[in-house]
User: Which sequence fits this backbone?
């Protein structure tokens, strides 16, 4: 019986992105907004060449203040992590990701299961942040028409589950 080894370009590509991410962190992060963030993890989406540090966010006055140049994370429920970033910086190409693409968050692989655009007024944050049975990421960024320099009429919501 002959054993054939399968070479996976996808795995090699993912590993290279993880290595690149940690090299990026080693160089040091100087965010555009001038705020010193504590990097608590990392996010890599190889299909759109996204590599970013991730900082934990705190709810203040019922709002999450999104960092200008990296991803922010927030979790209030079991098995659910909410990741937010600006569509003009870190998530500028998020709309080009596709269902079944791989996301690596804190060295754990996830697979994109849905990508949807909603009007901002139709989003129920309690529902978006509720607990899940399996490890789930929810990524959100602005979409649609700009309202001002930091907001838009819609939101792109990407959901991914742990592989």
Assistant:
């Amino acid at each position: 019986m002959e054993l054939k080894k399968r070479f996976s370009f996808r795995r090699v590509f993912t590993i290279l992105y993880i290595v690149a991410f940690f090299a990026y962190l080693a160089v040091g992060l100087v965010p555009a907004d001038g705020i010193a963030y504590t990097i608590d993890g990392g996010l890599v989406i190889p299909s759109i060449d996204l590599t970013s540090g991730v900082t934990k966010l705190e709810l203040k006055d019922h709002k999450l203040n999104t960092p200008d140049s990296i991803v922010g994370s927030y979790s209030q429920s079991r098995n659910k992590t909410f990741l937010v970033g600006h569509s003009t910086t870190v998530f500028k190409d998020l709309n080009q990701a596709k269902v079944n693409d791989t996301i690596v968050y804190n060295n754990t692989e996830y697979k994109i299961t849905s990508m949807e655009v909603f009007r901002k007024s139709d989003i129920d944050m309690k529902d978006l942040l509720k607990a899940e049975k399996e490890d789930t990421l929810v990524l959100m960024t602005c979409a649609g028409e700009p309202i001002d320099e930091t907001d838009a009429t819609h939101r792109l919501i990407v959901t991914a589950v742990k592989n």
Observations:
- The two ends are 30 Å apart (CA to CA).
